[in-house]
Amino acid sequence: MFLVHPTPAIYLWLDTSYLFDERTAPEDYPFQERCLLISVKARTGYDLEFQVLTERGVLRDKLPIVALSHMEFDKRPDFYNQESLQRWSCPSKYLTIVELPLQTGKAWIGLCKVPFKYLFTVDFTDGFEIDPGSDVSIPEEHKAQHIVVLACGQLAALPNNSLIWDHPTLVSVDKQLTKNPGYKVQTKDYSVERYRLAYKSIERNEAMYDG
After folding, report:
1. Of the candidates 162, 132, 130, the residue with the CA atom closest to the CA atom of residue 148
2. Alpha-carbon distance 196 to 148, whole Å?
3. Rounded distance, CA 75 to CA 151, Å?
């Protein structure tokens, strides 16, 4: 089952080698094509799959993030592979898109710190039915995918621990992190109602025992 969510409309370039196999690609077809980002799909355990509207009026979907660029492909200074652009596959097929009040920062791509511009965030939930492969409900396994444009023009889908954010009034240059100081993974669930219910259950059991 696929679930699809509309994205902010963003003009991009599409690597047209993803539209054909080697035997059917027309010789005169351009290697890149202007397109408009339309939507994104998710499948548990697979990478994000993007849908675009091409300048020829065709919708093409199930494209990996490596097939898209904010800059013309032949003008990009660097090239990163799919594994560098999306660190984790989708933890669930149920997704939503949010736009955070953030703009720029630096992304860790391998050992390099690459400037980026923020576009939007894909986040996930367990949905309304059982998804056997989903680990979204496990706090340490739940990873959002921030969609950013790297300085080289490529798009990337990266989690929190791969990004350092700029902020004109809050983040100072001299205090901005250059490496992870050893932050722990958030593994704790908080629920005041569960605590109250657990406490009442203990009280009932103690009362029955005392009686």
Report:
1. 162
2. 42
3. 12
Place of tokens 């406490």: 199
pTM over 0.85: no
Cβ-proximal residues to 203 (8 Å cutoff; 6+ apart), any chain: none
41 phi/psi in degrees, rounded to 5: -115, 160
For 183, the token pair is 């932050």
Q: Where are the alpha helices (DSSP H) in 97-180?
A: none
Q: What is the pLDDT along the chain (211 residues), one digit of tens a residue?
A: 457 899 999 999 999 999 988 767 777 888 999 999 999 999 888 999 999 999 999 999 999 999 999 999 888 888 899 999 998 889 888 899 999 999 999 998 888 889 999 999 999 887 655 555 555 555 555 678 999 999 999 999 999 888 989 887 787 777 676 766 666 666 666 667 765 555 555 555 555 555 5
The whole-angstrom separation of Cα 186 and Cα 191 is 15
Q: CB within 8 A of 171, min separation 6: which ones?
A: 165
Q: Which residue is listed with tokens 């949010």? A: 98
